[in-house]
Sequence to fold (203 residues):
Amino acid sequence: MKNFYRTAFSLVLGLFAASAFAQDFDAIVEDCNGCHGDDGVSQWTDMPTIAGMPEFVHADALFIYLDEARPCEKSEYRQGDTSRPAKTMCEVVAELDEGTLEDLAAYYFELPFVPAKQDFDPALAEAGKAVHDNLCEKCHSDAGTNPDDEAGILGGQWMGYMERTMAEYLAGEREQPKQMEEKMNELSDDDVKALLHFYAAQQ
Ligand code: HEC
Ligand code: HEC
Fold:
């Protein structure tokens, strides 16, 4: 009987801990989605979709924000309670512990990436394909849509976000793999523009 009570008690405790955790995690995800969109799929060109992001790349990005080693600008909440004060990604991750950051990366990897429905110029996209195939496809295969590459998703990501990200790399404000930097340095302004239309065309 004593054993029975002990087991029942620890079961109840366990359930309580599990539901408290679930509530916390749900609230955190809700906060992420307030900016990134339902299920991590963005509706706004300056906001990246984070659903389906390779788990390692996602966790790595969050840890880089934790070190404030990547530009992070203040952003307004896009949905839900939009009166919440604007925040940077660096501020967002500073409120969370490292285990939670890893759990978030794993959680969003399970959600389907939805390519952004956006306008693009077909002639520029065609020119961009040549640049991509020559310099980027080696690491960003299938037009930058293959999550197994562990190199982020480029094809179908929003053009506004991609444009800012490319500018940050080219200005040396965001760290990049050495071999990628060599390829980036070969790009003309026209190449960059063409690449943006090529990635936007992957719908
Ligand atoms: C207040 C708005 C806001 C909130 C809340 C927010 N983000 Fe972000 N996030 C952004 C913006 C804007 C960017 C684009 C890059 C930048 O400005 O730093 C971004 C970028 C990212 C990136 C980088 C994407 C890439 O392809 O490299 C990841 C990963 C990310 N956010 C995950 C999260 C997670 C997980 C949460 C919840 C814990 C979250 N974000 C909460 C606004 C937000
Ligand atoms: C040697 C392999 C390699 C090559 C070549 C390469 N990349 Fe990358 N790229 C990566 C890796 C790994 C990441 C993820 C790590 C990071 O964010 O620094 C990445 C990340 C990116 C991102 C950020 C995605 C995001 O979600 O924010 C962009 C944009 C990008 N690459 C564009 C390019 C373009 C354009 C080219 C060709 C001119 C290129 N890369 C060539 C390996 C490569």
